[in-house]
Every structure is written in structure tokens, then in C-alpha cells.
Amino acid sequence: MDQKFKYYEVYMRNSRGLKLFSCRWLPFSSPKGLIFLCHGYAMECSTFMRACGEKLASAGYAVFGVDYEGHGRSGGIRCLITKFDNIVDDCEDFFKSICALISLLKHLKSSYVNLLSHSDILELQEYRGKSKFLYGDSMGGSVCLVLHKRDPLFWNGAILVAPMCK
Fold it and tell me: What InterPro entries would the database entry show (predicted)?
């Protein structure tokens, strides 16, 4: 079967100076929408959620994920979460930085300025105006709920798979 998307991996630094791993699956065609992955505890985007990213990209969606601090290929003590808001902040910074790039680089956080090359930025201009969805699995569902609560008008919806919530 022919692959219908490109896969990229990029490292960046969060506001606390830790190295975070991110990945993205970008369809060759104009995307139907943008999906931002939030993985569960002790999981990661690059491996655990890879099949999900591939399926969604093959279906025509641009998919973006980041491994939380202490998870997957990101820096930090393995699976240590000292402050849940740090995870949410990192996801918000990364996801909104992607959207800022798509919106002609407005409001880009300087720590993410090297996230995409010039050719990637030109390619992503066709992503402007697309719907933005959060996708969270387990603890990632909680991350999605907090992200959506912080800025409900920014997101067009959320997909929650067995979300960790009360």
C-alpha cells in the first residue's frame, strides 16, 4: 500500500529547558483537519500512538504529537509528574505554536521557532482555516479536557478515549 503521508520527528525545548520529542504525520493532500495527540501515562506518541497517527493521516488529517516530560523520547525522570499543569502547558505551547506557524507565524513562542523549515511553513499555509481537534487517550484525555477548558473557542472539538477523569 502506498503511504499517503510524510512522517517527521523534531526535538525542541520547553519553557523549563527540557528537551521534548515531537512527531507529526502530514498527508500529501490538503488536510481535512488538524488533530493534536495527547498520550496516556507511561506511553508516548512515537510508538504507542503511532498506529493512530498513521490511520488518521492516511484518512487525510494532519496529526501532531509530543512526548510529555519524562515520557517516551523526551527528557526528564521517567514517568515523574511533579505538576500536571506542566504537561498541559507544554502541550498547549506546542499545539498553539503549530497553529501559529500555520497562521503566518503570528504569536510564535521563540522556543519553538526552529520547529519547521521554510518549505514546511509554505506547505502548511494550506492548513489555515482547518478545524482543530484534540485527541486524548487515558491521562491524555485529562490533558485534552484541561486544554479545552482553558480555551474552548480555540478548539473545534475533542476525541477522548478512556479519559482519566472524575
Answer: AB_hydrolase_fold, Hydrolase_4, MAG_DAG_Lipase
* pLDDT tens readout for residues 25-80: 999 999 999 999 999 999 999 888 999 999 999 999 999 999 999 999 999 999 99
The cell numbers describing 161, all together, are: 478515549
DSSP 111-143: GGTTSS-HHHHHHHGGGTT-EEEEEEETHHHHH
Of 63, 71, 6, 72, nearest to 35 by C-alpha is 63
The pTM is what? Answer: 0.87
From the number of C-beta atoms within 10 Å of its C-beta (0-12, 13-18, 19+), residue 85 rates as exposed
